[in-house]
Input
Amino acid sequence: MLPFMDHFDVDEETMRSVIDVALSKGGNYSDLFFGHAVGNRILMEEGIVKEGSKSISRGVGIRVLKGESTGYAYTEDLSLEKMKQAALTAAAIADSAKTVGSISVSEVPFTNHYPVEEATTGTSLSKKIEWIDKAENAAWDYSEHVKKVEVMLIDRIETIQILTSEGRLLKDTRPMMRFHVSVIAEKKDNRQIGISSGGGRIGNEYFRLKKSPSEHGRDAARQAVLLLEAIDAPAGPMELILAPAESGVLLHESVGHPLEADFIRKGTSAYTDRVGEKVASELITVIDDGTVKNDRGAVNFDDEGTLTSATVLIEKGILKGYMHDRISAGVFGVPLTGNGRRESYKHPPVPRMTVTYLSNGTSDPEEIIRSTDRGIFCKSFRGGQVDISNGDFVFVPIEAYLVENGRIDAPVKNLTLIGNGPDVLSKVVAVGNDFAFSDGRWTCGKGQMSPVGVGLPTIKISEITVGGSELVQK
Amino acid sequence: MTMDEMKALAASTVDTALEAGAETAEIMVMEGTDFEVSVRKGGIETLNESVSSRIAIAISRDGRRASVTSSDLTTDSIDRLVREAVELADVMDKDEFFCMPDKDELGEVEDDLCIFDPSTVEISTDKKIKTALELEKTACDMDKRIIPDEAACASGVHSMAFANSLGFCSSYSRSMNSISLSCTAEDNKASGLNTGKKQSSHWYSMATSFDGLEPIEKVASEAVSRTLRKLGSVKPKTCEIPVVFDAFTARDILASIAAAVSGSNIYRNNSFLVGKTGSRIGAPLITIIDDPLLTGKLGSRPFDGEGVRSRRNTVVEKGILKKFLMSSYEAKKLDSRSTGNAGGHSNFYIVPGEDDPEKIIGDIKDGLCLTALFGPGANWTTGDFSQGGQGIWIENGELSYPVDGFTVAGSFQKMLNGIEAVGNDIDWKNRITSPTLKISSMTVSGT
Output
């Protein structure tokens, strides 16, 4: 485990007195979230290592809860005076004077889900540039159609310290690295972009254990060149097969967001009040789990100090529960699930996914393809979005193919897939036995940016609306 | 910090950087105060108020560059950051195109752009809470089917000082005020396993001054009607059809065009508009302008992100692509001159046309009016466009029934050339804004 570096220089006595001020107006809960983050980025493009950059942030966010109401303020000046001032601003959410007994503080032990062999932050620049060079060379070597190559190595170390008014003190060091290659390929007037990206809460061993820089370079180039030959996708309802790992994006959008309990508490999600009901095919079991080792979406504890664990959301098609933060768990009187996450000390936590995945099935993935007369097979994705109220979601493939008579055929481009969460999940007719987690490249934007993970085995959906531009004669 | 203190810090950090061995330095010091209150069911949901500051240091040595930013503005921290930047630059490769702006281009417009309203900081927390509560109540009173989701009132004041090693040093502040409302309603048209189907929508107003916001009644009624008109939405048939983008969704098209004309994407070949300067890229009805000099608008600014004086740029004139929006570096890469767009576009808009949106719709026998788009299916690299949509079907010149669960697809190349009408409706609550647009034909994928 990376050592906890104390970047805050505030003792327990100081923190306790800030909590006292935060609760002085009658709030019934308060927490302090100290965050320190150092991020580095190296960019190579047009054959040169063009720019190195570094970013440092440090501050404390002070939150006061009174029922479902949140008062929040942060300060980047960690003097007692400024922290007390911020605490008073946050406290104003409540309106009755109150004296509180001082809390007794004890540090909470936890299991580390992101052991790191060799931290990327702190690695010599010459070594980083060596990896970047390898990726770039591999991309150029792939094809004469490659016209531009961009390679980025991003790393970040966050130090977190939380004290709650219940006296729970938690300290963590959260590493993150991401390697990104994008390639533009051109053939006459046709221009396409390919992307390969990955990483996680892991160190440099990522390149050895998961995917090497050259593999990233080749993969991005392969994708761009493949798309040069892609045909315009058809329009209309079709069968859909999703390849393992990255296709978990479908899950993140279709049921992930609508099961975040702030939407349930407010009654705005299509899944409100539906626990115990059938919301998907019995082949479907969905889990959110922040303990997935070294995953981009993993956290040892969430940003309000709850240790993470596996939360079953849907079991064999039946809705089991939601993802909670402290407020929604309080409203429903259910245990905390460890989903209260925030982008930084500048934001109060809200219910968010960590690593959301669909459990493994029993079907042979090759048989799933053989059994398809005419459909679309998707391997990788730009991303997606959901309307949590009506349940409609979209996701946009990058690498996708037509399937004709049980065989993968021509690559297709320019398509969005649109479905309705409960409808599409009731049409899952096969779940493969080839489960895999996606490489760590996903960032979810729900007001605040948050790194997440997804995973899925091969699945087949009997019908979804394929939004290409080509009308098909029936 | 006062403005003078911010400028002094920016200027002194330039000196620190040059002393540490930097050959060029560009320093930005930023400070912001933000307030937001959101309410639900008559009570406060979240109240958030904070002050933050940041310094950004960009230096170069022999065409090798590095940048560092930090929330810690103490002298010790800045000295350390500057040293780290110099060390970082030394391991970068030399970029033969690296350049500072032309000295003649540095400066600021003299007119007051009215982007900072000092009264923003004087509006009391109580007034903002009351405004949010009133917005929610107004909406709920309009129709009992409305489930309030969130009503919010926010304000912010952001100041920025910029100094560089060519001797430029200046600053400005901008203020922002907004009110917004999200509503939901039960949709009985639910089918299959989706028995909890609802419809939701939102509306908002944003302006440099609080008094410039749209009235509460207007924001409430727009959010309510946008929500209720979606009830009973059905999936439309798959077809090719004329499509009207209302001003709200037309903005999404323009946001992709803004990316496609940015110098940083052009020199990377990451745009479908590479090499198209001087040629026709759209119908003659289309003129697109980037104008940082508009009085009181959210994207107005006296100088750009590298101290170059702001100026109005016509990007597309009657369908002909005139120029890209470039910083000094991007301009050098493209053998051109800076357009004053370091840091991106300012107020980027399509010049309004003659027609009322009602008239545009009235001219369509069978078509689709889009009211919401979603998903990352707009690809400005290739020009491909396929997005999820929600809207209202047009029959015999009238808005007929609501539709959802479909996609709308085409390509930017065809869409821009297929623009048949440009509305006379434009608002200024965003830095990117468009009137209603009608496109001759697109593919709708539904049943």
